[in-house]
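input
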Amino acid sequence: MDEEVEVVNSIYEDCVLQRAENLYTVYIPNSPVSVRLLFPTDYPDKPPRVASVNAPEGVWTDRFQRIIDETFAQDAYIFTFIDEVQQVLPEEWPEKAVVGGEKPGSAGSEFIEQWIASEEIVDRKSVFIARVLQVHSQEEALEKVADLVLDKKISKATHNIQAWRIRRPDGLLVQDCDDDGESAAGSRLLHLLNITECINVVVVVSRWYGGTLLGPDRFKHINVCARDALVKGGFIKS
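output
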């Protein structure tokens, strides 16, 4: 996957950007359209799914999903997808439309208000803040996290550790986590969601490294601020 993205970005600069694990935004060149694709863990054996579409007009999700289904078996998949999408888009767009879609850093702050934040923990200049949000699917969890980390401050965090636990409509429990470089932190965060029996929630703990190693204390701070946010959000009792 990384190699495929690198090849496409060598042709179209910053055309494909990773938002979260298995979630990528594809900016369609010379257009105001961007498409979020959720890739399954067994890609390329199975095709990705259109998570969302950012376009000035019209609903393109179904059309783009058809393009995915029709082009999936071809080589250089992402490049082929971009080429096929370009062929169905209008040749001209309204002047107010931004060519290339919404780029990283231009959004994110408005999404913070949706999240419930913990109190800030500071230890030897390292800073920890947790944020929680109610979600109802893994896809929604990934999209919300991807939006959150567009914020300039959060995007500069050394780690944005994530975990989510969701009950699907069919009763199946879906849960996963992401260390984001802080080894074992994601699984500890997910363990907290399990022992507190939190359901339909995603939690993100941002850590800005202060230059001094904290050892096991870092895990304590991650859990404390995560629990604080979960209590404030009404997911668990104090």
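quick obs: Residues 217-232 form the longest helix (16 residues).
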